[in-house]
Amino acid sequence: MKYLENILEAVGNTPLVRLQKVISPLDNKLLLAKAEFLNPGGSIKDRLAIYMIEKALERGELKEGGTIVEATSGNTGVALAMYGAVRGFKVI
């Protein structure tokens, strides 16, 4: 059985969905949408959180086990909290 080691591995592995009703079938075109709402945190902000934290770690602006401070209660906050919980950061 295939499984993920942690929830962060599911981020970005969202499906492409064909939008059939948006364009005419006569146009012979393929229109796809990336279903980012199927990320574990429910939005594209999951990708943003991973990118921001990994860049901060690379630049030395954040240390392993450090504290992440974000003034939001929205999708970015949810994504940062999820990442922090998995990686051992305190998120406030």
UniProtKB/TrEMBL annotation:
The keyword Amino-acid biosynthesis does not apply. This is Pyridoxal-phosphate dependent enzyme. Its cofactor is pyridoxal 5'-phosphate. Residues 8-92 form the Tryptophan synthase beta chain-like PALP domain. It comes from the Bacteria. GO terms for biological process: cysteine biosynthetic process from serine. Pfam families: PALP (PF00291). It comes from candidate division WOR-3 bacterium. PANTHER family: CYSTATHIONINE BETA-SYNTHASE. Keywords: Pyridoxal phosphate. One of its GO terms (molecular function) is transferase activity, transferring alkyl or aryl (other than methyl) groups. SUPFAM superfamilies: Tryptophan synthase beta subunit-like PLP-dependent enzymes (SSF53686).
